[in-house]
Design goal:
Layout (H helix, E strand, L loop, with lengths): L12 H16 L2 H4 L3 H17 L5 H19 L12 H13 L1 H5 L6 H37 L4 E6 L2 E7 H26 L1 E2 L15 H8 L3 E2 L3 H6 L2 H27 L7 E2 L18 H24 L14 H21 L4 E2 L1 H10 L4 H10 L4 H17 L9 H7 L7 H5 L1 H7 L8 H17 L7
Parallel strand pairs: 3-4
Antiparallel strand pairs: 1-2, 5-6
The chain binds arginine (ARG).
Amino acid sequence: MSDPTDSPASPWGGRFNESTDAFVQAFTASVGFDRRLYAQDIRGSIAHARMLARIGVLSNEDLLTIEAGLTAIRQEIENGRFEWSVALEDVHMNIEARLTERIGVAGKRLHTGRSRNDQVATDVRLYLKDVARELDARLVTLMHGLVDRAEAEAATVMPGYTHLQAAQPVTFGHHLLAWFEMLARDRARLADCIARADELPLGAAALAGTSYPIDREGVAAELGFARVAANSLDAVSDRDFVIEFTAFAAILMMHLSRFSEELVLWSSQAFGFIELADAFCTGSSIMPQKKNPDVPELVRGKTGRVFGHLMALLTLMKSQPLAYNKDNQEDKEPLFDTIDTLHGCLRAFADLIPAIGVRRERMREAAVAGFTTATDLADYLVRRGVPFRDAHAIVGRAVAMAEAERLDLAALPLERLRALSAVIDEDVREVLTLDGSVAARAHYGGTAPVRVREAAQTARRRIEAGALQRSG
Ligand code: ARG
């Protein structure tokens, strides 16, 4: 059967109109996805009703039936007994219609002094604040996992890289704490954007405010908002807080994708630095030897959708005239998918980090093979009066010699080194060892094991200090 909405106007015009309306109804409906906001919608409605009763617009009797009705509806939704209707367009009208169905005329009084425009802006802000607390907890779990591993690997030496070429020895603990720093900034970005979103739109009504003597501060306090939105036109229309949240999410995913990339590289045969637990990998249906790092690969891949959502939201808001436009309904799917993606990726990483097997001897071998203590030899020469540029050249010749003879720098006979520079003594050995090299970098922010242990302890205190402000 052909879809009547595809046909041009025809003799069965009456029927066509009806079908077109049905299509438009489905096209414009958001209840399929915004039903996720039901708990926040009900919370907002109860706070609004209480305020209306306080200012005498609603009788106490009506307030009690409204509260009881909304509470019962929340249970219906949570028990899966609520019948969502596309004809009622969105979560707001579905709940309101059901309320009137349950309690009669009092239900029709709830929407006094309010519009879906300030209602939806309130719901999304409340929802984002709830979500932020959950995501913050996930970030904290992951950060603790990193700190624990970092402390345990404070003295594990690996090659540090620039250009993916072995550069200088670092400790694995120090490397892991680099990831901690990125996540700490991500966490601060989350708290920061939530603090800005923490204001109450209700009272803005459709766009111009309302003629009732409303108490917006009271509603804000009851819903746990820090402030009341200062301009009604702005309150109902901007979604910059959704964009900011998604920008935070995009940056976090960018970090996780880099981390994923390292896990993929490190677990490859070529590096062999780590072993990912079987639970985080899958095999190949054809190649029996394969163990694929699916989880980090997928996190890396999911980064793309979050970047896409950020671009979608920016484009959604671009050029919208004040105040509310239906365009704004399109904010929800990108936002919800961003949230789901973050939940999944943060959980995957939090589970994965403690389950990584570290192959310390492979890391050490790679650091040796990469002549990573070459800079230490140059610094040694400088301490003995050789200008740095000359020292650089001397060490370059030492590396070429070691490479030609397939020897580690530390294994070059002393007389060969002395032939390159007479200032070199027996004590050069210490400088050329990996452990000597990392131990020497003991300044604040350095890779020395003692510093890494200290940084891990400080990191734990910073996690405690950085908690999201709890409001509401
Ligand atoms: N479902 C709408 C949204 O998500 C609610 C607000 C609709 N307001 C309106 N005047 N059409 O944005």
